[in-house]
């Protein structure tokens, strides 16, 4: 009798818990957005576990279907499976980056191997792969649409890339390797976040603030006050770090902050990532070799626009040659300026670069951050950025306070097309917090797809780390921060305007070296007077940004373009070096990266510092063997914007073509074909060189289509 009562009570409590979990119910929110106001930390693990069970049951049903495999009963059924798991994963992992805490990190550690095992159970299922392969082999004779054929090919390639074609023994090896890789990359990212949050530099005397504008001082004072401290607090978040490095006259303090920033996760403490890097690189290499490839880059690049590592190196090397003279000229100019400023020779160390280059830029163009901030108040910037989408595509935005958000600072907007039809939900999350990782990114809580005649629209989120408001001023952005906003908003448009049948192919689900085109092309408008005049007004006086300042911004657009290109090339070469290893690397991480980047090294190397140990993009993000894509896409975006420039920067016809042929298409076609259809010609680096004011050297022009010729 006691056993019966216990069982009944346990069942009652279990059912009560399930019913209380918002993931187990249809969302009763506007547009079925996640009910963040109801989701609690304890809801994640039960939802993950139930999601895995339900998804596995759906996969088992597909695998054991006695009917002959077809697109509908295999590929489409697979595409539609796992709804609960997808919902909880999208919320959890997005918040793990944007609003994390120790409890969330512990859940990630607990669930990561389980999710990896679940993925392997699906992709290594021989019955399921047999059905997928059967549909794949008859795809072109089955009367399917081009988008359906594309989905089949991507699903099949996904299974192959995940070891489905391996022998049984190799499948078990892959299973362990992928599980390990999931853990190592998670550990890497969490270490970076924890080390970043752990550092603070508290200043307590006015003398230590020499050179810092009042807005920077106010932000630092507010940060100190929020921590219950007296003085001015600086940390490693982008607004705090960059503002200090650009403005502080105290070289010792600049060095102190620079060393803290560049020694993240390389100090031999509990957050050290050097061993994680070696493990990640080795595990990726072992996976590649298991699949029959000599290195991870060769394995990873097959389905990118670049196709292979030779084409990546061709692009990096061509840009290296084209920008070399400008890069060294930039350094010399800053060096000469520092000499004039100090009245004596100054060796420009890395902690000096931002300071002296900012002063040089201001002396040449009078466009320091402080000169432009009053015209870039965040709310006005939003109006300008949103307004650009209205001008180009007819898209409008309306704030919706009824949509739940995951933090009080987050805003949610309903997005409508020119005809008034609902397009998407857009979240904006603008400021740094301890639970948010560094950088800026676009993501989705729900992707777009069409099913049973209904177009299910996406829920897109833009996450940034912009300058906070203070007690005396609203959030006033730097030029670089506005550029970042436009960049992420371009990704957002790619996600919001997509018009596909299948979520796997929709929006930003494209190759890495194509995904940055919609984002980077948006940055071009920032130096166009016609655009700036529409929103850049002084937050105090309401006066438009002066024509003289706009001209100076335009003139300054190519300031240090050579240095900036070399900086990106350094990241690209470093990424490729780690992922073209043919044998595991067991040596010193710092020595490895110095060797990898020596041909694009412009400033002295500081002993003990490391880029790799905090390089989230390639070691915990999705850009392994893919960081080159920023430069690849930059070639595309310069060429694409040339079309707008020739037809008018708000030309509706050009915008409509870009929307129809790029933004709406997702991954439904080869990206080279999509670009060619929009542009009417293949791109070359000429437009990029012209935009950056670089004189082409003989034979620097390269074509970029399926390969670099």
Q: How would you summarize this macromolecular structure in one to three sentences?
A:
The chain is mainly alpha-helical and 709 residues long. The chain has helices at residues 2-20, 44-63, 71-80, 83-98, 102-123, 126-137, 146-161, 168-198, 214-226, 238-247, 251-262, 274-290, 296-300, 309-342, 350-365, 369-372, 378-393, 479-496, 512-515, 517-523, 529-532, 547-555, 561-579, 589-596, 616-619, 629-647, 652-663, 671-679, 686-691, and strands spanning 201-203, 232-234, 396-399, 411-416, 422-429, 441-446, 449-451, 454-456, 459-463.
Structural commentary:
This protein has four domains: 27-165, Up-down Bundle (Glutathione S-transferase Yfyf (Class Pi), Chain A, domain 2); 200-262, no CATH class; 287-346 and 560-691, Neurolysin, domain 3 (Orthogonal Bundle), CATH 1.10.1370.10; 372-558, Neurolysin, domain 3 (Orthogonal Bundle), CATH 1.10.1370. Helix content is 55%, strand content 6%. The chain is built from 29 helices and nine strands. It has helices spanning 2-20, 44-63, 71-80, 83-98, 102-123, 126-137, 146-161, 168-198, 214-226, 238-247, 251-262, 274-290, 296-300, 309-342, 350-365, 369-372, 378-393, 479-496, 512-515, 517-523, 529-532, 547-555, 561-579, 589-596, 616-619, 629-647, 652-663, 671-679, 686-691, and strands at residues 201-203, 232-234, 396-399, 411-416, 422-429, 441-446, 449-451, 454-456, 459-463. A five-stranded mixed sheet has the order 3-4-5-9-6. A two-stranded antiparallel sheet has the order 1-2. Helix 2 (44-63) runs antiparallel to helix 4 (83-98), helix 5 (102-123) runs antiparallel to helix 8 (168-198) and helix 14 crosses helix 15. Residues 1-6, 8-13 and 698-709 have low confidence and may be disordered.
